[in-house]
Amino acid sequence: MPDASAGSERFFTDHYVNLRAPHASDDIAAQLRETGLVTLDGLTTRRAVLASASRFMAITPHPHGAPDGLTLIHDTGRHAYRAGFAGFGNGELHAHTERSGSPNPPRLILLVCLQPASAGGETLLADGLDVYARLVGQNRAVAIAFSQPRTAYFGTGTGHASQVFTIQADGRISIRLRQDDLARWSPIVRPYLPHLRSAVTASQHRLTLQAGQGYLLDNHRWLHARTRFAGDRRLLRALGEPCVALPNGFTPRRAASVLPCRAKPSDGPSTPFTSNPPTR
Ligand SMILES: [Fe+2]
Prior knowledge:
Elements: H1 4-14, H2 24-34, E1 37-40, H3 46-56, E2 57-59, E3 71-73, E4 93-96, E5 108-115, E6 119-120, E7 123-127, H4 128-138, H5 140-145, E8 152-154, E9 160-162, E10 165-167, E11 173-175, E12 183-185, H6 193-203, E13 204-207, E14 214-218, E15 222-226, E16 229-230, E17 234-242
Antiparallel strand pairs: 1-14, 2-17, 3-17, 4-15, 5-14, 5-17, 6-16, 7-13, 7-15, 8-9, 8-12, 10-11
Helix pairs in contact: 4-6
């Protein structure tokens, strides 16, 4: 059985950039463009987290954020069972992108651990590039289905009809996902959800963040998740738009024959979502 701790350290090291190095900003920008993920350390205070966030992004406010734009992610003891608030509990969080129910989700997430859990609370990261490649490799129809326009509805009544994979005009692909009670699926893709979930699971890397460690990732490329935890786990999160040019999503390894086919309006119950969420 693989050593999870060693795997986490290797994954952290493979994506690590030293913030204090002379050309750190250039290195981070280049790595964001290349892989969409950077791991960082030495961020032990709120001021340090805010300074780093401001260095890489124009911070966008979040409904649960503080006036400085940062959001404290911890178990509040009162949010765990409210739809859309699971992040403020101590349960498992399935792989998702941030703000999937908004028309324009933030490009960047900076998440820094101030205090790790006493047990669990590990981060699971999956590169959308890998998820997409697995789906194409295993069953091309699944990748095509999840690229069909408006086959998912994410959020509440003011949410957003979209699709898991959005193929841009330049051939790059961005990803958007949530898997909680605020995700609703068209019959076009519902039969394929187990395929998607297994591709995500197979693509996930485990990361055990220590105090002061964190990650900066492209929210249009990477999925993040969390395991259940115990203890007073505390993290700070910033969302925002990059200060440098960052091409959207990823370039797929094999894309030529996986372009989406638009469903016809006469497709009855299999039609994609309109602007309103379906009733359940
Ligand atoms: Fe999240």
